[in-house]
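User: Fold this, then the next.

Assistant: Folding the first:
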Amino acid sequence: MESVPPEIWTDIFAFACTDDGSTGRALSTVSRAVHLASKPLKYQSICVVGPIQLRKLLTALSALSPRARQIKYLFVANLDASIALDVGGPESTTEIQRTPHADPDKAATTEEVVSTEEALLRMLHLSSSSLVALHIHCTEIYRQSLLPEMTLPHLSELTLHSEFRSVQPTTRQPHALLPSLRRMRIHHFGYLPPDFLRQIAHAAPRLTHLRVPQRSVSPYTVQVALGLLQGVAAAPACSLEEVVIELDPAPTSVCSWAGNIRAEQFLRKFRTIARGDKRVCLVDGRNGWMTVDEAKEGWLQDVCRLEGSRR
């Protein structure tokens, strides 16, 4: 290795560490020289499936310096239960009520049970300065807003697959939490706030590509977001180059005929908008569901594309 400049090895390891984290772990066991050269890239690309993996990764990351935990690509799935996390540590993001111990030697191993939302927020906090692509798949998380209330300055791609529970409108003044976000994909959400597109426009002013389910937007909000209505300004300034709308299955229930009529009216309006504006694309939403493995494969393809474009 001594005959090759360190920056060359850095580029090689950066290309290699674009999987679920297996390559980074393997490189650290090759030799001392390879371990040291690849250490800053060990956590560049990480896949977390389930609360146990999340706990282990949080424990490992909390013991590292910021330079050694540069997570750029993160895939998270199946976080649907509370998990036990080690209490305290320099990277804790919130104050936690600790369980008292009579034996001080056991206090260091005290555990707390936290929600998966809190655990995920801690993970995002640890990686906020470096995160480029985030995929969250098949989670059941209670939260008050669709987007995390933290700044992710370098995040350029965000994919949310399967819905959060209790997604509610927020009264907070929106601001650019995601200033670098260019692509956002939202699959299979049952409900989004009525002013969702306006919130996204404020949070991600450079967003160019958006994919949403039909039930989460209306023809009016799409037209406003694209600046298609005369006398109504785009929100806040239209940067969208493509809006993909996943169409709902055709309504069949005879018990909600009023809702069926409204759905048909919306569908006709969406088709009219798509015919008049090439930025709008309508796709069949019935086949959009993915397994965790399928979503992970899509994430890995995005990682390779993003890492390749940066070289």
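Now the next one, as you asked:
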Amino acid sequence: MKIIISGGRQSKSSLSYFNKEWSSGVSGVIFEYDTDSKKIEEMFTYETPKKYRAEKDYSISFKSGSIDNNKLYITTLTEILIISLPNYKLIDRISLNLFNDLHHVVHENNFLYIVVTGLDLVLQYDLIKKRVSNYYNCFREADTWDRFDKNKDYRKLNTTKPHFSHPNHVTLHNNKVYITRYKQEDVLVYEKKGKYIGSIKLGNGIPHDGSIFNNEFVYTTVTGKIIKVDISKEKINKIIDLNKFAKEDCSLGWCRGYNSAKNLNYVGFSRIRPTKFIENIKWLGSKMTDKYKLKMPTRVEIYDNKYSKIIDTIELERVGLNWVFSILKY
């Protein structure tokens, strides 16, 4: 089995670590990890063309994606790439003027569901008609088009921060759209046709990934927790705190990226950048001391089925992946 890991590579400049996250990536990178041989190999490297990005102080990175029918659907900040597997050939590229800080994409029945974090929005895109077919507002307290202009090219902006909801991930189930929201620490729920249903309160830190495993929604929080939610009741079943594996005075890192394969759990951690550290100082809590070190490297930890121990670690910085977004299996 192959584990596919997506993320970004930062500049080799000594200053790049201290840059804002939207101006530090120089390329998107995809690696494959073979679960049998334990070898990791760089499979695809990509730079966003100039016409699809800001003129300066831009960042290039892969964010989160999904796999369907031997195709990898993956986001850059301003594009959706469709890549064939296992040969990693670029099949198609989609880039719309509304794209800014894309975070995730999933494919179902010739529709793409695209998380446009920069506009606090999820789009439904029709691959046959090649147009947006629905919008899911992720900050319902304000109309999306009162805040943003449909005719503006948001690909040319480095950032639209501050975000009001900052959606991260989208999951589809039973004709519903489930969207994790950073600011509200919840999961927004819509019908696919666009009707708002409600939300699932998660708490326990900023949620990021959301996927379905063994009849449960499994969500990660960037603070190092795994939250399992009953699909039918939409209630939390279990919370697993991975911080029990943290070293003294050292955070695990920015927890993002999850998958389950062969009774093992693959969880991604990215080195905490100073901008992330300052922005999220509250959740670091007691770890904010004079001895605090932002030293834990970018990696994927492999836990046993019950999260009782770490089986192995996939070191990513040594192969040139500075932050991880997606962990997929193929």
